[in-house]
Amino acid sequence: MTPLPVTLRLVAVTNSAEQTRALARALAPLCASGDVLLLAGDLGAGKTTFAQGFGAGLGITEPMTSPTFTLVRQYPVGPRSTGPPQGGVRTLLHADVYRLGTLQEIADLGLGEQVEDEGVALVEWGDVAEPVLGRGSLSVRLAVADDDDRRVITFTSPEGSWSERWPALRAALGQWLVDG
Ligand SMILES: Nc1ncnc2c1ncn2[C@@H]1O[C@H](COP(=O)(O)OP(=O)(O)OP(=O)(O)O)[C@@H](O)[C@H]1O
Ligand SMILES: [Mg+2]
């Protein structure tokens, strides 16, 4: 008998920045306080674009720009027409660790602790930070496909911590999913 794969994996394809924002917007309501999403992908792959859609899904209306130079930007999660924040999320932290040289510098940002009570963190170039932020995280890797505007977006839950939410994630991403 083949053992079940430990790593959960979903693969989606978007054909425009707007679709990537819509996909991230659909994912956002599934997140709960304490979640850290690691965004991976080359320069210009769409990590910030994804973060913008995710923020919109949390009801954030202020413009979200790249935190490349500020390292971490913090956005209060506004009241939403659908009711109180789901999962107790009151703050979105948007980080970019591209400029940090060591894992210790990333650990020193304290993102895991900051989101513990009522926040969610999105970390651009977060794949390098997996050793310090990986526990309980969802990884999102964006890759530029053959076509300029097409992105292949792969979701994995390295430690299976998203296993309970996996069916809901699959449903939320349904229209963009392809066979992985
Ligand atoms: N399907 C798509 N998904 C996301 N972005 C797309 C897509 N198609 C085209 N784009 C364009 O690609 C660019 C992505 O830029 P973005 O700043 O989001 O990338 P990034 O991964 O955050 O880059 P950096 O590594 O510099 O932080 C934007 O100009 C966006 O309009
Ligand atoms: Mg960016």
Count of discrete domains: 1
C-alpha end-to-end distance? 21 Å
Helix-strand category: alpha/beta
What percentage of residues falls in helices of 4 or more residues? 10-25%
Percent of sequence in beta strands: 25-35%
Q: Which CATH class? A: Alpha Beta
What is the name of the CATH superfamily? P-loop containing nucleotide triphosphate hydrolases
CATH topology: Rossmann fold
State the shape. Answer: globular
Q: Unreliable segments (pLDDT under 50, ≥5 consecutive)? A: none
Structure summary:
The chain is α/β, with parallel strands linked by helices and 180 residues long. Helix content is 24%, strand content 25%. It contains 6 helices and 8 strands, in the order βαβαββααβαββαβ.
Characterization of the model:
With 180 residues, the chain is of the alpha/beta class. The chain has one domain (8-178): Rossmann fold. 24% of the residues lie in helices and 25% in strands. An 8-stranded mixed sheet has the order 3-4-5-2-6-7-1-8. Helix 1 packs across helix 2 (47-57). The relative contact order is 0.25. The model has no long low-confidence stretch (mean pLDDT 89). The protein binds adenosine-5'-triphosphate and magnesium ion (MG). Residues 14-17, 19-20, 41, 43-49, 66, 68, 124, 149, 151 line the site of adenosine-5'-triphosphate.
